[in-house]
């Protein structure tokens, strides 16, 4: 199964040499779960054209420092790719900005939240189980790094999980198959902590310091990788 990773951002330059880019991170996360996976990337945020539907079996959309409302030239082509992928019945997964982009493109809304920054390891309650959530869990603890949130669901979408801080944190879309997560399962804890220390100053200390400390807690990122792989494989054609 060939998965196209649509990169909509990249790690800060000083961190890339140590940790790699998002394409590398997602390969590390997903490749162990199936020998049938292959991967390619489109770096949409630097102007690369979105791929034709014939060029992938599944689509994964990464995080980004951009907001879906920013009006950057590359955002609407990515939103149109989301809609076309949904119409074609190909599986797609959104992460952070990808989560927000999918919701916005399919008829919902994402915007800057008045709750401010969410950083560090956040625990989401899983409110609805579905068949790709194997092995099952009633919660997901994983890295987050965002100011924006999904604030209105697209028609027919349902909330699979979230928290008081981020109620619409895990979504399943009626147009699809398509799912999305506000959390960052591709962030290993050493990367997440390093990134947050790098951004300290931009992010208020009352959020940054507890966020840094939270990286000592456990993570369900490997479980999330398994779930995402299960989802893609379930919809392989």
From TrEMBL:
Superkingdom in the source lineage: Bacteria
Native source organism of the sequence: Hyphococcus aureus
Protein keywords: Hydrolase
UniProt keyword annotation of Hydrolase present: yes
Protein name: Gamma-glutamyl-gamma-aminobutyrate hydrolase family protein
Residue ranges of domain Glutamine amidotransferase in the record: 52-193
InterPro entries: ChyE-like, Class_I_gatase-like, GATASE
Transmembrane annotation, as ranges: none
PANTHER family for the chain: GLUTAMINE AMIDOTRANSFERASE YLR126C-RELATED (PTHR42695:SF5)
Cross-referenced Pfam families: GATase (PF00117)
UniProt-recorded Gene Ontology molecular function terms: hydrolase activity
């Amino acid at each position: 199964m060939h998965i196209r990773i649509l990169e909509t951002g990249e790690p800060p330059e000083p961190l890339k040499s140590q940790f790699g880019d998002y394409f590398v991170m997602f390969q590390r996360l997903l490749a162990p779960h199936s020998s049938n996976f292959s991967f390619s990337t489109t770096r949409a945020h630097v102007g690369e054209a979105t791929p034709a539907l014939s060029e992938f079996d599944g689509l994964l959309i990464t995080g980004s420092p951009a907001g879906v409302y920013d009006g950057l030239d590359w955002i609407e082509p990515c939103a149109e790719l989301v809609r076309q992928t949904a119409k074609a019945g190909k599986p797609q997964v959104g992460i952070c900005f990808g989560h927000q982009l999918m919701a916005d493109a399919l008829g919902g809304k994402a915007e800057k939240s008045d709750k401010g920054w969410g950083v560090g390891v956040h625990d989401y309650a899983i409110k609805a189980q579905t068949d790709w959530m194997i092995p099952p869990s009633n919660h997901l603890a994983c890295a987050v790094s965002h100011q924006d949130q999904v604030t209105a669901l697209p028609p027919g979408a349902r909330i699979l999980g979230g928290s008081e801080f981020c109620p619409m944190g895990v979504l399943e879309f009626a147009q699809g198959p398509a799912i999305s997560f506000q959390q960052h399962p591709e962030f290993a804890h050493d990367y997440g902590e390093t990134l947050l220390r790098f951004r300290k100053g931009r992010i208020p200390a009352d959020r940054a310091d507890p966020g840094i400390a939270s990286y000592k807690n456990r993570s369900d990122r490997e479980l999330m990788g398994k779930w995402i792989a299960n989802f893609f494989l379930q919809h392989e054609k």
